[in-house]
């Protein structure tokens, strides 16, 4: 009965979690789920809060965006092994084999203090983290990372290295981690091409040939050792930086000038399935203490065969719209999740939207997600669910209400009430039945001195249930019979072996 009650209570506790609106987080698709970590609240280019949360979105189940888009998240920040997560913004990340992903660098959004573990790996099968504090690795933020399947290496580079916000410079070093054992790594540097500067921010993505890295947007810069800081320049989309992972050579390609996106950073770049094109989504022209808004020309396609840009045709405006500091996570079925970020109203969003990329000529926003039956369900060995948050969001039907209670939260309350009523009914029925059993019990007087002990009272495990009343009848008394039973006997006689 106790187990039944605990199970019912667990049904109440497994409710959705509404995260706070945020930017600059890490999100990856692993083991049929989306995992997001970190991020912060961006107020016109300045961070005012950190969110050291590890969030989980189960994609083995259907999602209806109009009802539960926010409350489908679960907060799994507390892992089964008690690993303590550190605040992190603008970290680099990539997937690893065996249902894992790695986070490199980052740090507290507001002051970028030194991390205890500058590299961490999450295993989605065991739901556990592993931290690596490599003293030879500089702590980067606004850098990049890719996984090279051909060499089984995770490669990180670019961005800014820091031991504190007052000591910042461009990081020219590459770090190559063994994907099987990330504690093993080596570093190297490569000369840049003529006129090139080490990139930072923006996006770097592995191309369709799985060996060429394409870098889009962001800023380029060089360090100034005397001033212990850096100088940056907006990176133009007229020129795309390429890095060949086989030859370790940088190069550039000049694109066809018919259509050129405006300069931007904090956007996403996604290699679309079964194509040679990248989708560039969102971004912001410049971050400053003034009011900051995302680029209105927020969606472009870059074709790697023709080296040309085109405006992405998104047929409906009922989706994510312009935003920056978001994440873009591609599902194997072609659904692209646009997650969090800052929208055109300068609001830090806590939502996600789903873009159907199956038709590269015309993208559409979806109102629901249907899982793939062939994908393995994610492991949820260690989860922590909390109540709904109070962040107010705008621009989406699936957002929280004006009073701060979302549709998912209301549904959770209804489910909780129904479960509570069910538990109360079960308890009432159990107590009534127990009372009835007491009334029906018949007690018989037994002369215990006439009861003979068992033949071997010390053999076996002696158990007694003190919660159950017993009735002893004379027919159950063990009586010793000294008469030996008649049983068949086999008579054996010696036989002389043959051959002797």
From TrEMBL:
Which InterPro entries does the entry link to? Kelch-typ_b-propeller (IPR015915)
A Pfam family for this UniProt protein?
Kelch_KLHDC2_KLHL20_DRC7
Which UniProt key words apply to this protein? Kelch repeat, Membrane, Repeat, Signal, Transmembrane, Transmembrane helix
Residues annotated as signal peptide: 1-16
Claim: Cytoplasm is one of the keywords in the record? no
Q: Where is this region: Disordered?
A: 376-402
Q: Where is the composition biased (Low complexity)?
A: 377-402
TM region(s), chain numbering: 409-431
Q: Which SUPFAM superfamilies match?
A: Kelch motif (SSF117281)
This protein is called what? Galactose oxidase
Species in which this protein is naturally found: Phycomyces blakesleeanus
